[in-house]
């Protein structure tokens, strides 16, 4: 008998449709790389990387200068914060220079290229005048400014070469002259050799290497042919070999590459103690101020070998953080140079990026025992106002160029406080100007009819 016991017709059962298959879970690594690529493609990424990276390096450098220089200052019968206060003063002046440089238009940067070059050449020549130039650690490349303040003109020569060469190459590219090797080399290479000669008269091999790296970076950006590039590189390598062979001090530095033990005559002392400092740091370091090597064992602990003290006190985590900041700064500089249509911006950004990254690689490589000790400071990190001021001005250049991109200009123009209200000139609420709510993406103004 069909039907139920109650006499009601049976309720037909609904057949459930098969559940749709779940979409496969996305690989977390693929998702992370996609988000990272999306974030990197944003217009203001380079701007934030340059500004934030340089700020973090400078602040961390101030902390490490204070920690690494206390013992040296006390040994010289000076207050423990002596070098820190001088570095802080240089950082404040450098911050002003950075702000001025990032606000200056590109035309003004190009107009200042020749005066800065002339001033740098004059000061570098003045160093060799007896009674004016000072010798520090065997290198005569300083000028006394009075009191305890000194200036190293060769540091400003790097900035001068970048600005002047960028303007020169940009004007020649606009006239389609860079296809001829004579116009590519003259007067760029002779001027670079003039600066190198003035630097080498004082015996500063490290700064000469940085200046040579800037020259090759500019030639590479200008599209120098391989044969021309190799030829200039060969001449520079031959001159460098002659200069190294002519000095027992420079030759001894090359012999200390990879050294883990000192010689019987005490050679490689600085290189070996730098390795000791890094090795004793461990994963997270011994803590700020707890370095042992800075107690007179490690020479130049607050200048050339400050990275070793950072490794001892902050450990592997601290040194990798510093490396990551410099990598981000260099990557952002390459992006600025690669995305611009202005030839001056491309050459200037490429020159500054080459300068900072090459100097960081040479300094860190020497501390790690992979390169000879060149005696160059770690940019934005080591003690030294003469090195900090032109470097911060160069960072201001990169910030200005990053802001000058069309997409970055549009994004900055839309940046307003997330919440805010424009106040009227006065009066009652009925005749006061309407509210204006500002966000990152759009500006929404409330209607005067009272709608929300």
Would you write up a description of this structure?
There is one protein chain. With 452 residues, the protein is mainly alpha-helical. It is built from 15 helices and five strands. Strands 1-2-3 form a three-stranded antiparallel sheet, covered by helices on one side. Strands 4-5 form a two-stranded antiparallel ribbon. It is globular. The protein starts with 27 loop residues before the first helix and ends in a 7-residue tail after the last strand. Mean pLDDT is 85; it is low at 418-452.
Q: Helix coverage percent of residues? A: 55-70%
Helix and strand content put the structural class at mainly alpha
What is the CA-atom radius of gyration, in angstroms? Answer: 29 Å
Mean pLDDT: 85
Question: How many beta-strand runs?
Answer: 5
- Which consecutive residue ranges, at least 5 long each, have pLDDT under 50? 418-452
Instruction: Enumerate how many helices there are, as a single number.
Output: 15
Shape: globular
Strand/helix succession: HHHHEEEHHHHHHHHHHHEE
> What is the end-to-end distance?
67 Å
Strand order of the largest sheet: 1-2-3
Keywords:
mainly alpha, three-stranded antiparallel β-sheet, 60% helix, globular, disordered C terminus
């Amino acid at each position: 008998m069909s039907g139920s016991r109650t006499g009601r017709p049976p309720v037909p059962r609904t057949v459930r449709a098969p559940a749709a298959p779940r979409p496969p879970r996305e690989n977390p690594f693929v998702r992370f790389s996609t988000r990272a690529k999306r974030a990197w493609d944003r217009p203001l990424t380079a701007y934030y990387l340059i500004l934030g990276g340089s700020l973090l390096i400078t602040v961390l450098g101030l902390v490490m200068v204070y920690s690494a220089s206390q013992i040296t200052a006390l040994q010289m019968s000076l207050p423990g914060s002596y070098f820190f206060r001088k570095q802080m003063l240089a950082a404040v002046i450098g911050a002003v220079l950075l702000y001025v440089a990032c606000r200056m238009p590109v035309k003004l940067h190009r107009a200042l290229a020749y005066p800065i070059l002339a001033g740098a050449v004059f000061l570098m020549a003045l160093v060799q005048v007896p009674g004016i130039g000072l010798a520090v650690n065997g290198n005569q490349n300083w000028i006394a400014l009075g009191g305890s303040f000194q200036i190293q003109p060769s540091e400003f020569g790097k900035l001068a070469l970048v600005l002047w060469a960028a303007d020169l190459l940009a004007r020649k590219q606009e006239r389609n002259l860079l296809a001829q090797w004579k116009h590519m080399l003259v007067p760029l290479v002779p001027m670079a050799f003039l600066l190198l000669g003035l630097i080498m008269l004082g015996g500063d091999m490290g700064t000469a290497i940085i200046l040579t790296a800037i020259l090759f970076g500019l030639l590479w950006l200008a599209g120098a042919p391989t044969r021309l590039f190799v030829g200039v590189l060969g001449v520079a390598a031959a001159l460098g070999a002659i200069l190294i062979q002519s000095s027992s001090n420079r030759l001894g530095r090359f012999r200390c590459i990879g050294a883990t033990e000192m010689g019987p005559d005490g050679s490689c002392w600085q290189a070996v103690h730098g390795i000791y400092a890094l090795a004793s740091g461990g994963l997270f370091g011994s803590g700020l101020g707890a370095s042992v090597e800075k107690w007179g064992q490690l020479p130049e602990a607050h200048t050339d070998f400050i990275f070793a003290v950072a490794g001892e006190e902050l450990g592997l985590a601290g040194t990798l953080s510093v490396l990551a900041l410099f990598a981000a700064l260099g990557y952002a500089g390459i992006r600025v140079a690669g995305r611009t249509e202005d030839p001056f911006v491309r050459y200037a950004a490429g020159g500054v990026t080459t300068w900072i990254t090459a100097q960081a690689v040479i300094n860190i490589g020497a501390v790690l025992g992979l390169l000879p000790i060149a005696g160059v400071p770690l940019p934005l990190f080591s003690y030294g106002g003469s090195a900090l001021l032109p470097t911060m001005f160069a960072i201001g250049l990169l910030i200005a160029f990053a802001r000058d991109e069309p997409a970055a200009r549009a994004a900055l123009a839309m940046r307003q406080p997330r919440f805010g209200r424009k106040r009227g000139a006065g009066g009652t609420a009925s005749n006061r100007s309407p509210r204006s709510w500002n966000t990152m993406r759009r500006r929404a103004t409330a209607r005067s009819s009272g709608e929300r």
